[in-house]
Structures are given as structure tokens and as C-alpha cells.
Amino acid sequence: MAIKRRIDPAKGARAFRQWIDNASKEATALPRPVIAMAVRYTLEELASRAEGNSVEVRVPPFGVTQCIAGPRHTRGTPPNVIELPAEIWLALAAGKIGWEAAVATGKVAASGLRADLSAELPLV
Which intervals hold domain Bacterial SCP orthologue (predicted)? Predict the structure, then answer.
């Protein structure tokens, strides 16, 4: 079953491309709405490529999605949760950093047996 997209794919891809092009220029920060659009677009893209409900990926304060096939979670805190900041999430989605390196930063909280996105990333 295809996910219901809330972000226009063309606008989301444009925001993500802006982030990729700007990632090496730390002095020039992107506006918060562009970062939010890029995060939400990439979360939707992940959910569409790895459909399922066994892992919850959280990128506060911008968005959350469920993905990866497996046992369905319905109540309370999911058993497989990944939470990370936007800059790490976008770097993973763009292939600028690998899963192991992202986890090694200490900024990625991943709990549960299925809380590993290495097979699903990068998205580009």
C-alpha cells in the first residue's frame, strides 16, 4: 500500500537538492522552512521505499515516519525507534555519511533489533 504524501515531491526534491548543494557551506545556513521541507520529503521517501510499520524514525521537531516491514506496532512506545537531528538525517539520506559513522557521532538514538537503516540509505 502506497503511503499518503503530504509534501509535493517536486518541492520536496528541490528543498533536498538545496540542502545537498548547501551542505558543504556551513557559513550559509538554509532557512528553517527549507530544512523542514527536505526532512519531511526524505522521511516520506524512506516510508515509500521501505514500507512497513516496525521502525519509527523521528527527526524532531520536523517529522516522524514508520517504515520497514515486520511486526506492526499499535500502542505505546514502538519497540524499534531511531531518533536523530535533522543535519545527521539529511546527511544520511544524501549519502554524505554512512549509518555506522552517524551512530558513532553519538547523536543517533537507535533502540530495538530492527533499528538499523543502513540497507535503506542513501535515498539519492
Answer: 32-123
Say if CB 64 and CB 43 are below 8 A apart. Answer: yes
Q: Which residues contact 21 (CB under 8 A, 6 or more apart)?
A: none
pLDDT, residue 28, reads 61
The answer as to CATH 3.30.1050.40 being correct for domain 9-111 is: yes
For residue 12, what is its C-alpha cell? 520536496
Structural domain boundaries of the chain? 9-111
Tally of CA atoms within 13 A in the half-sphere of 73 that contains its CB? 19
Q: How many CB atoms lie within 10 A of CB 120?
A: 18
* Mean pLDDT score of the chain: 91
